[in-house]
Amino acid sequence: MSKFADIQIDPAIVKRAARGDVRAHEIIYRAFAAPVYSLSLRFTRVPAQAEDLVQETFIEIMRSIAKFRGEAALGSWIRRIAVSKALMYLRSAWTARGQSLADDWHEVTPGDAASHGVSSHPDMALDLDAALANLPSVSRTVVWLHDVEGFTHKEIAAFMGRTESFSKSQLSRAYQRLRPMLAVPGEDVRGEGAALRGC
Amino acid sequence: MSSDKKDEEMICGLTADEHDLLQQELRALPDVMPPRAVWQRIREQGEAEGLISQRPMRRPMTWHGGIGLAAAVALAALLVPVMTNTPEPGSITEPPITNPSNSVQVNALQALMVESRQLESDLRSLPDEPRVRQAGTVATISDIEDRITSIDYQLNDPAIQMTAEEKEIFWRERVRLMKLLVGLRYAQVQRTAF
Hints:
Chain A has 10 helices and no strands. Chain A has helices at residues 3-6, 11-18, 22-44, 47-64, 74-96, 111-114, 124-133, 137-148, 153-160, 164-178. Chain A is elongated. The relative contact order of chain A is 0.11. Chain B is an all-alpha fold and 194 residues long. Chain B has a domain at 59-193. Chain B is built from 7 helices and no strands. Chain B starts with a helix and ends with a helix. The interface between A and B is large, with 60 and 56 residues.
């Protein structure tokens, strides 16, 4: 489950925020700043850009919270804004470089991510972080949206303005790079009968 | 194998175990708080655009300082009625409020203050944080402490006049966060013990 979903805010504070109460907004900020910043940082990899995205996200929250009806969890609503802002930024960055969304696999040499995939479990978090950072930004974003935030390929495709096949293909390529890290000691991961799961 | 199944295998290429492990490890990566200056920038922009109401901001203090102040406020709220009403030993202390609807709110507020004070006491009674700690837990604890500090600024800012209802909202949130904090610290102690 996404970390956004774990964060609960008293509905009375949300109501106060909807009336423009700076104190209520600060409480919401303190609650959600870390997941919003972490998500932005995972997508962009540049702290200054991630900080800008946090600012854009929380300003959007200030603008829109009066329209928040509480039908979904506040965390899901904020996550959607954060993802939308981050993807908008990435799209503009790709556009500025004259690239399409599908192009950025060419930026990564085949050894980049795989070279991090030789560690054992104690260091896995660090290695996985590094391996993730070495994926092309589109694939890294798809992996994060799919496997951490729990979005479906249909939703990811809608976010990115692409097809579901595009999302699946990006995920598949990312998995190929990350896979060497996932060997469970003493287990033949490609053994006969191993259940394969669709993307 | 059906062609659909084959497609899935070609697209995904991970076993169920690998996929579960990947998701588990990705979700365990720690969150990071943005630099403190970011909130100030957001606040300034929000005020400039008229999205939030402008209020004076106190200089940041440590969360321990904030808790000390909040505890002092809670203690004062409890002691003042005791001193003014001088109740019989063993009797329930009532706050000096005449409006019946306010009375209910003040009692709820006092209950939250007492609960908050009890949680602080519980927290202090736990051993110091272990030297070897899980990064994710440390980040979460730090995050919760920041949120408590933020609430304490507001509860203790003399420039901010809150109604009893407003105070109750903030105290309720404070109690909720304190419970989370005590739970996390307790789990940390348990992990160290084994």
